[in-house]
């Protein structure tokens, strides 16, 4: 089967640059290819995991004993006549968020600007309901097309059950195929101060961005601040270390392993709970070699 590749290394497909190889891997452009890939996985009784930009996931050093699916179709349609102040943007899930924001600005849209500098593809943005303290991605959604493993469905926003960094789509492990977004019209600033601010705060190197969810961001309880107050900046396990610039960034010095990252994360979680009484939850998706999510 030409669609399915065997023994695909995953290390260089993820931002943390750790992990082993997937037994099977497929890049999906059409619904027919998606159905074919699922049929292959079902016939071989293989677990499936989804890969976007690889910015928010870690696979184990032992690899993955299943099928990795990566959506690569990135078609976008702009209905600029939807209303006087908003456009309806239909976009496929494989579209990289940063590219969509850049292209939307050229169309005269500014409604995605709060998400500038956040990595990942549209499908991941929806499943994980990415956001900032004042806005979440789910607020823009008017309709989502998902695949539940058997057939495609259209979901209304309330059916997605969006919560902080989560959704029913994520809980049910459905695949997002496309989405309709209602986006504000307007001219984006020439100098992107929000992007510059985020870039300046973020350390350079191999990481997954913010590793832990913020426990209560609306009330100023942030994971990075808690970790810093516990004195964990610079802490190291093997090739994994806590950034001196932002304590919620766990980094790989180029020689780290997935096991190093997880061991460091567990140390941080235990220390924050012991000293602050706050139980951190990982925002990064951590998989075992059978596709099961790990909660530290």
Quick summary:
The chain has 296 residues and is α+β, with helices and mostly antiparallel strands.
SSE blueprint:
Layout lengths: L4 E5 L11 E8 L2 H13 L4 E3 L6 E2 L5 E8 L4 E4 L6 E7 L4 H10 L15 H6 L3 E2 L2 E2 L4 E7 L4 E4 L1 H4 L7 H5 L2 E10 L8 H9 L4 E5 L12 H7 L6 E2 L2 E3 L6 E4 L5 H19 L8 E2 L10
Parallel strand pairs: 2-5, 3-5, 4-17
Antiparallel strand pairs: 1-2, 6-7, 7-12, 8-9, 10-11, 10-12, 13-16, 14-15, 15-16
Strand content: 25-35%
* CATH C-level class of the largest domain: Alpha Beta
CATH architecture of the largest domain: 2-Layer Sandwich
Measured distance between first and last alpha carbons: 37 Å
Helix content: 10-25%
Secondary-structure element pattern, one letter each: EEHEEEEEHHEEEEHHEHEHEEEHE
CATH names the topology of the largest domain as Uridine Diphospho-n-acetylenolpyruvylglucosamine Reductase, domain 3
Please, how many domains? Answer: 3
Compute the average pLDDT: 94
Largest sheet, spatial ordering of strands: 6-7-12-10-11
Number of strands: 17
Given as residue ranges, the uncertain stretches (5+ residues, pLDDT < 50) are none
Gyration radius (Cα, Å) is 19 Å
- Main structural class: alpha+beta
Largest sheet: 5 strands, antiparallel
Shape: globular
Can you count the helices? Answer: 8
Provide structural commentary:
By secondary structure, the chain is α+β, with helices and mostly antiparallel strands. The protein is built from 8 helices and 17 strands. It folds into 3 domains: 5-71, Uridine Diphospho-n-acetylenolpyruvylglucosamine Reductase, domain 2 (2-Layer Sandwich); 76-184, 2-Layer Sandwich (Uridine Diphospho-n-acetylenolpyruvylglucosamine Reductase, domain 3), CATH 3.30.465; 203-286, UDP-N-acetylenolpyruvoylglucosamine reductase, C-terminal domain (Uridine Diphospho-n-acetylenolpyruvylglucosamine Reductase, domain 1). 25% of the residues lie in helices and 26% in strands. Strands 6-7-12-10-11 form a 5-stranded antiparallel sheet. A 4-stranded mixed sheet has the order 1-2-5-3, covered by helices on one side.
